[in-house]
Design brief:
Length: 170
């Protein structure tokens, strides 16, 4: 092996080590798993017909170890979804054609303890996404919008879980 090959090999291994040191030095760290306080050991979820958000929220709560209860009396807390709304507005218009849309998802909820006392204020989670409107591919644009709406629901669920944790820790 020549001296030049040895230097190239050392650089190849040195670069990842330097990147790891640089990233850890700036304070970057992964979020890690979400652990909810004991207030959310057993949750009764009042969906009020908002199944687009309640189904992924139930799944997310179960994935972090929460048991979903069939009645409010057996639960340690009650989470009520008050409203869920999606607004779609034109963002970029050229002539008579809309080139870009903005979607905004708003979900409002409250948390109550087992006695029915509201914990914290009403919370509203907002997610905003934009997407391009391809007038030559209407079917593809419709599918893209459906995917974006599902992703927005997932992002809202994660924010709801974080807010629930913050409410319990006050």
């Amino acid at each position: 092996m020549t001296q030049l090959q040895i230097i190239k090999t050392q650089r190849f291994f040195l670069l990842p080590v330097l990147l790891v040191l640089l990233i850890s030095g700036c304070g970057f760290h992964l979020r890690g798993d979400l652990v909810l306080p004991s207030l959310y050991q057993r949750v009764y979820l009042v969906a009020n017909g908002h199944t687009d958000i309640s189904k992924p929220l139930k799944a997310a709560l179960e994935s972090v170890g929460t048991k979903m209860e069939p009645t409010a009396q057996s639960a340690t807390s009650v989470v009520t979804l008050l409203s869920r709304g999606v607004q779609r507005r034109a963002l970029n218009v050229a002539g008579k054609q809309i080139r870009e849309y903005e979607l905004q998802l708003n979900v409002a909820f409250v948390v109550q303890d087992s006695t029915g006392k509201q914990i914290g204020d009403q919370q509203t989670v907002s997610i905003i996404r934009t997407f391009r409107n391809n007038t030559s591919n209407v079917l593809g644009t419709g599918n893209e919008e459906d995917i974006i709406r599902r992703e927005m629901n997932q992002a809202a669920v994660l924010q709801i879980l974080r807010r629930m944790k913050a409410i319990a820790e006050k």
